[in-house]
Amino acid sequence: MVNDMQNEPNKWAPITVPDEGQELCYECDGKRLCWSCEGAGIRDSGAVCAQCGGSGRCIVCAGSGQVPTGTASTLDSKEAKRRLKLIGHFREMGYADVSDAPSLKFVRRSPLLARKPQVVAYLRSAPSVSFSPGFVSDYFDSAQMIGTHTMRTDGEYVWPDFLAGYVEHYDVELPDEFLQHLGDRDWQLPAAIDVTTLSLPW
């Protein structure tokens, strides 16, 4: 897997002087790269990097190398950020290094979710909290695309975009507490989600 940062290295050169009203990203210090894979997008094992979803970009600044002035100081206050709960982090989709990552081989369920259409719509419609371009192949049918590594959130949970496709086509299991959470919300996303107040779980 070759990401756009590798294809066009000059375009993604580190920055040392941020734009007006911006400061160097506190995560990558202007290097633009994912701290975990150092911009490669993949692990030595060949697995997609679970941190950046294969993009190679810093997940905080999305590869820009800078964030609005004052961002880092705001983050110093723990209460300013809500830590999201991760779901849909399957081993085969690049999350093998996450300790509780389930395997797609064992999460297909029967019978189907009673509220499957509402669940799929909920998963697909949630706003993104980190962006990763490019589609990924379906684990069960490599000729098909299943979604992207873009991370979506409802303000409490966070999941990769491709999760909706696995629920829709393969009825993969979702955590009981997440389904209860959806039921409590009447299967509807909040009217507004401020992703700047949220923290990814890694």
The H-and-E topology, N to C, reads as HEEHEEHEEEEEHHE
Mean pLDDT: 84
Class from secondary-structure proportions: alpha/beta
Major beta sheet, specifics? 4 strands, mixed
Number of domains: 2
Runs in which pLDDT lies below 50 for 5 or more consecutive residues are none
Proportion of residues in helical segments: 10-25%
Q: How many DSSP-defined strands?
A: 10
Looking at the structure, what is the overall shape? globular
Task: Report the portion of residues in β strands.
Answer: 5-15%
Radius of gyration: 18 Å
Number of helices: 5
Distance between the termini: 23 Å
What does this entry look like structurally?
With 202 residues, this protein is of the alpha/beta class. The protein has two domains: 1-77, no CATH class; 81-188, no CATH class. It is built from five helices and ten strands. The chain has helices at 4-7, 71-75, 116-125, 163-170, 176-184; strands at residues 22-24, 66-68, 82-83, 85-86, 128-130, 135-137, 145-148, 151-153, 157-160, 198-199. It has a four-stranded mixed β-sheet, covered by helices on one side. It has a two-stranded antiparallel ribbon with strand order 1-2. The longest helix is centred in the middle third of the chain and has 10 residues, at 116-125. It is globular and about 55 Å long. The relative contact order is 0.15. The model has no long low-confidence stretch (mean pLDDT 84).
